[in-house]
Amino acid sequence: MASSSSNTPKESVVVDCGRRRTSCGYCRSSRHNSISHGMWAHSLTVDDYQDLLDRGWRRSGCFLYKPEMERTCCPSYTIRLKAGEFVPSKEQLRVSRRMQRFLDGTLDVKKVDAFEDPYTSTKSENSSQPISEESLAVGLEEEDDVEKSLHCLSNQIDNVIHMLVEKGEFPSDIQLPKASVKKVSQGKRKLLVNGSEDLLYSSNIAFQIVASVKRALSCDKVGNDSKPSRVCEKENESSPKVIAEKLVASLDPAVKSYGLSIRACNGHINFYASNKQVSLSESVENPPVPKKSRTKHDAGRICVPGPQHRQVKRRKLEMRLNRSSFDPEEFALYRRYQLKVHNDKPQNVTENSYRRFLVDTPFIQVSPTGDSTVPPCGFGSFHQQYLIDGQLVAVGVIDILPKCLSSKYLFWDPDFAFLSLGKYSALQEIGWVKEKQVHCPSLQYYYLGYYIHSCNKMRYKAAYRPSELLCPLQYKWVQFDIARPLLDRKPYVVLSDSSILQNGGSSLPQITDDGMGREFDDGGEDANDVPMLDDEEMVECESECSDDEPDLECSDPEIGDVSKVLLGIEGSHVKYKDLRIVFGPQQRSYLEPQLRRYRKVVGPVLSERMVYSLGEYEC
């Protein structure tokens, strides 16, 4: 279907396709257990689609669909978030910080990062990886350099300890522990005092020496109380702080020559990056150990404390918001994403299917008006591009509507999985809504598509808090934390019943955590980084229009009254009551059940506002 017309329409025109049965993309059932109601949209106003969203509808291109919640295998609840009330979790904040470190050039991209996403199970040796291959090589080389540096620093400390033992500074009649120097993580640096950003390594050997001395003293007292050994004397003279300062005094000259500075801090021996660093390879080949700091224990020993010094490469992230249209570069990225992340077959990822899925739109686009009712970009369908140094790495397909930004789909470059682009783009979209509220106060919500409590891979959406779910019967919004106990009991529930929980009128058995927390905590960095499929792929699969099951009669007289349904026939728009007389009994008996069902799924207001087309149209 064409996404636009030469004569710009002014109203929504839809064709009702009735009930559809398809295979389920979530539970992977071999039977066609996914049941929804479908419509094709010739045209659609953004206001009408906003109201359809708030009745549980979604779109795939120009096709609109709504799960029949009481019948479908995986009940799908519309989930949204009020952007102004969003509180990011620690994990979400970590994603933002990781992206910033990557852009600043300070992120060490380890080999594990490239395979972080659980849906990127394999990586082709022949695939094009313009950034990640370089990053992996640098990351692995740096990791090897760091290990060498830690080993050599530990040896330096052991040498100094041995020297002080010979001088009588440390007891000689006990076995002292070997030194261990460890790398200080980025997170721990931020918890320390100012200047800790240059802290590279640290050792707690002073605490271990004190502990060894105390253990020896305890054994000595038990074995011979009348003859306390020299251990007792040294135990009283030393503390971790004093020992650390002694070690630093002897280590300082040698460490400085390798481009590091060293300080004792509350018993810890800390190594910092100085302004001038010596590269690892240089220090391995020609270690410039000062003569004054050499001892007989240094002879023949090569020590390499200098960290690898590399020029920091800063990257530029650019985001572009474009009206929905076909872009060859975007399609190439989409195809690569579907093949590598979702393991789609190449013959199923075609330009036509991509256009129908993510490019075609029925919306009557709204341009900015300059007032506070429309954001600067206008309303309609958009593609949000994410580019790093000019390279397209992700595309978010979104709808910008009067009350919300509705996230439809996201595809990204598998080589950048370590950046958790699914989470990052969601945070950017939430931030966009908050920012644009200044221009359009009605724009307050972020819609994440469908939430499926019975599908663990979809539960990541509830991590964006505080979210709320749409009741499938009364179309009221219910806080997720209130609705969850009901969903723990069974997949389909009338969420309005959650008022029982709030009012204390009924109690439910205690439900243990069935995986929600574990999925975020133990499922890997990107465990909840699942693409927003939202059933679009299901409607693209082979399916059938089916009316083989009778619809339940509507008990609501208003819904059952189809006289006000707006019909479109031969270019004219009339109420059914004004056209009913021209239909014969057989035609009315065929048409009226369909109109009742249509009025039920879209609601009385929309059935009188949108045009129900009676023209021929492919379903």
TrEMBL record:
A Gene Ontology MF term for this entry? Answer: arginyl-tRNA--protein transferase activity
Q: Which InterPro entries match?
A: Acyl_CoA_acyltransferase (IPR016181), Arg-tRNA-P_Trfase_1_euk (IPR017137), N-end_Aminoacyl_Trfase (IPR030700), N-end_Aminoacyl_Trfase_C (IPR007472), N-end_Aminoacyl_Trfase_N (IPR007471)
GO cellular component terms, alphabetically, are: cytoplasm
Is Repeat included in the keywords of this UniProt record?
no
Q: So what does this thing catalyse?
A: an N-terminal L-alpha-aminoacyl-[protein] + L-arginyl-tRNA(Arg) = an N-terminal L-arginyl-L-aminoacyl-[protein] + tRNA(Arg) + H(+)
Q: In this protein, which residues make up the domain named N-end rule aminoacyl transferase C-terminal?
A: 329-471
Q: Where is the N-end aminoacyl transferase N-terminal domain?
A: 23-92
User: Carries keyword Transport?
Assistant: no
Q: Which PANTHER family match?
A: ARGININE-TRNA-PROTEIN TRANSFERASE 1, ARGINYL-TRNA--PROTEIN TRANSFERASE 1
Described purpose of this protein according to its UniProt entry: Involved in the post-translational conjugation of arginine to the N-terminal aspartate or glutamate of a protein. This arginylation is required for degradation of the protein via the ubiquitin pathway.
User: What is the protein name given in its UniProt record?
Assistant: Arginyl-tRNA--protein transferase
